[in-house]
C-alpha cells in the first residue's frame, strides 16, 4: 500500500475530478481481472487507483477497492503516432513490457504502414489520424516528421494525453514553449525522446564521472559516424521540414549529452558541410566545439556521410585520473589510465535500449515526476544548436550563456544570440 501511495499521490491526484473518482471507483469494484480499465477519458486508468486511495477510509480498504492487490496491474493505453522507420524501435520497446503498456492504436496517413505495425503488435486498431482514437488512449508516442511535432503535441496534450515526443521537440523556440506550457496547463507529462540518456553504457560513463573515477574532467568527445541516405523520407532532405541539417536532427542527442555531462556552456562554434551529402539542404557533417563554465571542452563530430568508419559511435571523457570510453561497436565501457585498460561494463546486447526510455516515461506518468529528458531540457539543447547555427552563418563564436540544463529556461527570446553589450 505504501508503494501505491508513493507512486500515485502527486499530479494524478491533482487532475482527478469528482466525476472521474465516481466512475473509477465503480470500475474498481467491478474489476477482478488482471487489468484496471475504465473505458474513457484522460488519465482514468490512473485515476482509478487514486480514487481508491481518496475514497477509502484506510489503506486496507483502498487496497481492497483497487482490486485486492494480487496480480492487479496498470496498463497504459497508448497510440503510436507515425509508423515509419523509428516506430519499429518503439514497437520493440512496447513488446518488451506487455504488463505495463497496451498499444490500442497505430496511426499513419500511409495506412499500410499503420496496419503493418498494428498487426505486429497483436491487432491494435489502426487509422490515418490520431483524432479517431483520442477517447481511447492515455498517452501517445509521437514518431513523425519534425514539422508535425508541434501540432500533434498540442492536439494530444490539450486532450489530456501524456506525450513521449521524438526528438527534436519542435522546429522553433515558440513551438517548444507552446508545447511545454500546454503540458503544464493539462497536468500531463511531455517527455522528449533522447534515449542515449537511458542507455546503460552512457549511464555507466556518467556514473564514473560523477563518482570521481576520472578525476577532474577537461574534455568530452563524441563521434557519430553514420551513412544515412533517406530516399524514402523526402521530408528529411529539406530544412523547412527537418529543421536544419544533421546537427539539428541527430546531433541534438549529443549536444544534450554534452550539457548533461559537462554542465553550463559558455561559448561554442560549429562548422558544417554538405560535401558528399548533397541530398540534404542543410549540413550532413558537423564539427562542434563547446567551452563550459568549468573550463572543460566538449566536441562533437557527427556525419551522415561516412562510407566507412572505425569509431562508429564513440564517446570519450578525459579527466585528470584517466579516460572513459563508451565503445558502441564493442558494446563496452572502458577506463584507460597510465597503468592499464579495464573494461568496466559489457552490454548484454547492441541497440538503443529504447525500452528504458519508455519505462521512464511510464514511471513519470505514474509518479508525476519531471522526466530526466524533460521538454525544457530538450529546448535548452536546441537553443544551443540555433545559436551555433546563427554564429556560424555570421562567422563568429556563439555566446551560449544561460543554456545549461539547470538554468531558468522558461523565457522566449533565448534561442537567438544575445546582442553585443
Ligand atoms: N531517437 C532516435 O534515435 C531516432 C532515430 C530515427 C528517427 N528518430 C525520430 O523519429 C521521428 C520519425 O522519424 P522516422 O525516421 O521514423 O521518419 P519516417 O519518415 O520513416 O516515418 C514518419 C512517419 O510519420 C508519418 N506521419 C506523417 N505525418 C503524420 C501524422 N500527422 N500523423 C501520423 N503519422 C504521420 C509518415 O507517413 C511516416 O510514415 C523523427 O522525429 C525522427 O527525428 C529518432
What features would you describe in this structure?
The chain is of the alpha/beta class. Helix content is 37%, strand content 21%. It folds into three domains: 2-66, no CATH class; 76-188, Rossmann fold, CATH 3.40.50.720; 197-354 and 383-399, Dihydrodipicolinate Reductase, domain 2 (2-Layer Sandwich). The strands form two sheets. The protein has a nine-stranded mixed sheet with strand order 14-13-12-11-7-10-9-8-15. Helix 4 (44-55) runs antiparallel to helix 5 (59-66). The chain starts with a helix and ends in a 22-residue tail after the last strand. The model is unreliable at 1-23, 29-47 and 68-72 (pLDDT under 50). Nicotinamide-adenine-dinucleotide (NAD) binds next to loops. The site of nicotinamide-adenine-dinucleotide has 25 residues, from loops.
What is the strand tally?
A: 15
What is the class of the largest domain in the CATH system?
A: Alpha Beta
Could you report the average pLDDT, rounded to the nearest whole number? 88
Binned strand content = 15-25%
The CATH superfamily name of the largest domain is Dihydrodipicolinate Reductase, domain 2
CATH architecture of the largest domain: 2-Layer Sandwich
Describe the global form.
Answer: globular
| Sheet with the most strands, sense and barrel status | 9 strands, mixed
> Termini distance?
58 Å
In order across it, which strands form the biggest sheet? 14-13-12-11-7-10-9-8-15
Counted up, domains total: 3
CATH topology of the largest domain: Dihydrodipicolinate Reductase, domain 2
Low-confidence stretches: 1-23, 29-47, 68-72
- Please compute the radius of gyration using only Cα atoms: 23 Å
Number of helices: 14
Q: In percent, how helical is the residue content? A: 25-40%
**What is the helix/strand order?**
HHHHHEHEHEEHEHEHEHHEEEEEEEHHE
* Helix and strand composition category: alpha/beta
Q: What small molecules does the structure contain?
A: nicotinamide-adenine-dinucleotide
Amino acid at each position: 500500500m505504501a508503494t501505491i501511495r508513493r507512486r500515485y499521490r502527486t499530479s494524478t491526484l491533482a487532475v482527478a475530478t469528482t466525476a472521474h473518482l465516481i466512475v473509477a471507483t465503480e470500475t474498481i469494484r467491478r474489476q477482478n481481472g488482471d487489468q484496471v480499465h475504465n473505458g474513457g477519458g484522460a488519465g482514468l486508468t490512473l485515476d482509478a487507483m487514486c480514487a481508491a486511495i481518496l475514497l477509502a477510509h484506510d489503506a486496507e480498504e483502498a487496497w481492497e477497492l483497487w482490486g485486492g492487490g494480487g496480480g492487479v496491474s496498470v496498463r497504459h493505453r497508448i497510440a503510436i503516432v507515425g509508423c515509419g522507420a523509428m516506430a519499429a524501435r518503439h514497437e520493440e520497446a512496447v513488446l518488451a513490457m506487455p504488463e505495463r503498456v497496451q498499444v490500442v492504436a497505430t496511426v499513419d496517413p500511409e495506412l499500410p504502414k499503420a496496419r503493418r505495425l498494428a498487426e505486429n503488435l497483436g491487432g491494435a486498431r489502426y487509422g490515418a489520424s490520431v483524432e479517431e482514437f483520442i477517447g481511447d488512449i492515455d498517452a501517445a508516442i509521437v514518431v513523425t516528421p519534425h514539422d508535425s511535432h508541434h501540432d500533434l503535441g498540442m492536439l494530444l496534450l490539450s486532450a489530456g494525453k501524456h506525450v513521449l515526443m521524438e526528438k527534436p521537440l519542435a522546429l522553433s523556440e515558440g513551438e517548444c514553449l507552446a508545447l511545454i506550457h500546454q503540458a503544464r496547463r493539462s497536468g500531463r507529462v511531455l517527455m522528449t525522446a533522447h534515449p542515449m540518456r537511458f542507455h546503460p553504457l552512457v549511464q555507466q560513463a556518467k556514473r564514473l564521472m560523477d563518482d570521481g573515477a576520472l578525476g577532474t574532467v577537461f574534455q568530452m568527445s563524441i563521434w557519430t559516424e553514420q551513412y544515412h541516405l533517406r530516399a524514402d523520407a523526402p521530408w528529411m532532405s529539406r530544412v523547412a521540414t527537418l529543421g536544419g541539417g544533421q546537427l539539428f536532427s541527430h546531433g541534438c542527442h549529443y549536444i544534450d549529452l554534452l550539457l548533461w555531462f559537462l554542465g553550463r556552456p559558455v561559448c561554442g562554434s560549429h562548422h558544417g558541410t554538405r560535401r558528399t551529402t548533397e541530398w540534404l539542404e542543410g549540413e550532413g557533417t558537423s564539427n562542434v566545439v563547446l567551452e563550459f563554465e568549468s573550463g572543460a571542452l566538449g566536441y562533437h563530430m557527427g556525419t551522415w556521410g561516412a562510407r566507412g568508419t572505425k569509431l562508429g559511435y564513440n564517446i570519450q571523457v578525459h579527466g585528470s585520473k584517466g579516460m572513459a570510453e563508451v565503445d558502441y561497436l564493442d558494446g563496452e565501457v572502458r577506463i584507460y589510465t597510465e597503468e592499464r585498460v579495464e573494461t568496466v561494463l559489457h552490454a548484454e546486447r547492441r541497440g538503443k535500449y529504447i525500452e528504458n526510455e519508455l519505462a521512464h516515461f511510464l514511471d513519470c506518468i505514474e509518479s508525476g515526476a519531471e522526466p530526466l529528458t524533460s521538454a525544457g531540457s530538450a529546448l535548452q539543447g536546441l537553443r544551443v544548436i540555433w545559436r551555433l547555427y546563427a554564429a556560424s552563418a555570421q562567422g563568429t563564436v556563439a555566446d551560449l550563456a544561460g543554456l545549461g540544463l539547470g538554468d531558468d529556461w522558461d523565457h522566449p527570446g533565448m534561442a537567438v544570440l544575445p546582442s553585443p553589450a
